[in-house]
Design brief:
The structure is a homodimer of 141-residue chains.
Chain A (H helix, E strand, L loop, with lengths): L9 H13 L10 H8 L3 H13 L3 E4 L5 E4 L8 H8 L29 H16 L8
Antiparallel strand pairs in A: 1-2
Helix pairs in contact in A: 1-3, 2-3
Chain A binds a DNA duplex (30 and 30 nucleotides) through α3.
Chain lengths: 141, 141
DNA sequence: TGCAAAACCTATTAAACCGATAGGTTATTA
DNA sequence: TAATAACCTATCGGTTTAATAGGTTTTGCA
């Protein structure tokens, strides 16, 4: 059986795991992509692309060459998981019409007030959001 | 932009909407697929397959021929949304390894105790689960 | 100065899945 | 007997995911 929707992508999963590794090292001791891909059993090339997007978004610094690698630019307690989730996964919501950061109207709905599932999905969004908002990269261990 | 994962499938969305329509009618006045597909702006053929799976799972009864259609087999207050979600969407969890009904171990994880994101995902699952458990088809309106 | 390490970049792929469509058959009612 | 509506099987195009391939650039060090 397959579980596509409603599930975390491997991209996000691997990204969170990588961040938890990086949170255990300071910026003077960068961690290489290979180190993380080995210890977390993640495809090297796939992880590479994830770390690059985390760097481009401003969460990671990098150092090339021998002794190089990636490191957190802020202390892990200062990085809420909402930010990471939104970057890697996208909206924290079960429907685009209840997403705060990636809102999109539904094709099939006339209005959101009369939609039979809108309010329920807002409840789910809020409860999930509260968890991610109250946890940071430092909680990944 | 596209939002695949972490999102409800249209199948589930349409299924919930259809149930909310059926909840407004008693079993002596079945509602046709066409009526629902028109009022909810859902593809007829797609909705058809959804209603059939709801019937096969024991939630709906059906009546063929003129005056026929679908109707709820129980009163809407007695159908918790957890059941519907699991049928149409699958696991109520962000990872198979934290799913209660569709559990699957991760390939990359050594153990769930040491997994850096396992506990967090359990929290999300529990909060989502609580909402769906405390709501029924009768709440869809 | 040259070699190795490691980040960085672009492109491509195979498989899977979603959402929808097509074209029927069967059962029921009037 | 004709219309209605559920029911069934199969297929399809498009999109996305996750991974792979094959490079270039920068840095440290012997």
């Amino acid at each position: 059986m397959a579980y596509l929707c409603f599930m975390l992508s491997k991209k996000t999963k691997y990204g969170l795991k990588a961040l938890s590794v990086l949170a255990k090292h300071d910026r003077d001791n960068p961690v290489t992509t290979l180190t993380i891909s080995d210890s977390e059993h993640i495809s090297y090339k796939f992880l590479e692309s994830i770390l690059i997007s985390l760097r481009k978004a401003g969460y990671l610094g990098s150092k090339k060459g021998k002794g190089g690698g990636y490191y957190l630019l802020q202390s892990p307690e200062k990085i809420p998981l909402t930010d990471i989730m939104r970057l890697l996964e996208g909206p924290i919501a079960l429907l685009p019409c209840v997403s705060l950061n990636y809102y999109e109207a539904c094709d099939d709905c006339q209005s959101e007030e009369t939609c039979s599932i809108h309010r329920l999905m807002i409840k789910v969004r809020d409860s999930t959001l509260e968890i991610f908002r109250n946890h940071t990269v430092a909680d990944l261990k």
